[in-house]
Amino acid sequence: MSTACMLTEIRAEIDRLDREIVALIGRREELVRRAGRLKADADAVRAPDRVEQVIGKVRALAGESGADADVVEATYRAMIAAFIDLELRVRPEE
Ligand SMILES: C=C(O[C@@H]1C=C(C(=O)O)C=C[C@H]1O)C(=O)O
């Protein structure tokens, strides 16, 4: 198979995975929104201790699955930051 064909196949597989990843992000978003509704104020929304707990957990999961822990951490920090912004945007005025 030519290099161009191999790249096309790999990209098709990446596109399939992206469909699954986006669906999972949507499910996670729903849970984050539910958690946000239970919180009293913006400090509770940010929950930095919980963020570090999640980061420690996903770094360990990366180790188990052979994923690069630094890539997983950077991805999760960006995603959690976006979710915190979302929680702050959709919460009623304090
Ligand atoms: C969903 C929560 O709120 C925020 C979002 C988190 C996340 O996306 O995992 C974790 C902590 C908070 O910054 C939570 O407190 O559990």
UniProtKB/TrEMBL annotation:
GO molecular function, one term: chorismate mutase activity
UniProt feature coiled coil, ranges: 7-34
Signal peptide start and end residues: none
Domain of life: Bacteria
GO biological process annotation, one example: salicylic acid biosynthetic process
Domain Chorismate mutase: from-to ranges: 1-91
Keywords: Coiled coil, Isomerase
PANTHER family in the cross-refs: CHORISMATE MUTASE
Name of this chain's protein: Chorismate mutase
Organism annotation: Cryptosporangium phraense
